[in-house]
Amino acid sequence: MVESTQKYKEDGKSEGFRHYETARRLIDEGKFKAALRLLLLSIGKEPHFKSYELAGDCLVALGRPLEAVSYFASATTMNRGIRAPLRLAETWFALGYYEYTMLAANEVLRREPENKKAASIRTKAEKGLAEKSNRVR
Question: Under a CB-based contact definition with an 8 Å cutoff, are residues 68 and 92 in contact?
Answer without folding.
Answer: no
